[in-house]
Amino acid sequence: MNAAKARARCGASVAVTDDVPTDRAMGFAARRAALVIETNPGDAQLRILADRAMTVAERTQTQRVLRLHLGGDAGSVSGEKWGRLARYTNQKPGKTGFWTHLVCSEPVTRPVRAAQLLA
Q: ∠ CA 59-62-64 to the nearest 5 degrees?
């Protein structure tokens, strides 16, 4: 079984939305279990912790809903999005040299209910 099929079968409890304006991502993370990693000046990846593993289809739907409400990269809605690690440089042409970094890790103890993410 290849890695993509294994991930789809196992599910994941984290949904990643890319290129969300950092201020919007911070506002979301202030109220929910989420991480914000700034990947470019003013843009961030928002990683939301759900209360259960979600299927690829559920993560895709979550990414679509979040992108509509918060902004972000429409081309990065696949359900299989893996985030960048903090403390690495962006390697995209024209964006090299920016060190990604963690800007928000709220100490929310309860994850977001997957049903709320999908509503």
A: 110
Residues 107, 34: contact at Cβ < 8 Å? no
Is the whole model's pTM more than 0.70, yes or no? yes
Tokens encoding 60? 């895709």
Q: Which helix (H) or strand (E) holds 42?
A: none
Q: Which of 15, 20, 38 is nearest to 88 (CA)?
A: 38
Residue 65 · residue 82 · CB < 8 Å? no
> pLDDT 10s per residue in the chain (119 long)?
455 555 444 557 888 888 899 999 998 888 888 889 998 889 998 888 888 888 888 888 888 888 888 888 877 777 666 677 777 777 777 777 778 878 876 655 566 777 776 66
Three-class SS state of 9:
helix
User: How far apart are the C-alpha atoms of 55 and 118, rounded to whole Å?
Assistant: 12
Q: Which of 60, 58, 59, 76 is nearest to 20 (CA)?
A: 76
Q: What single DSSP character describes residue 75? A: G
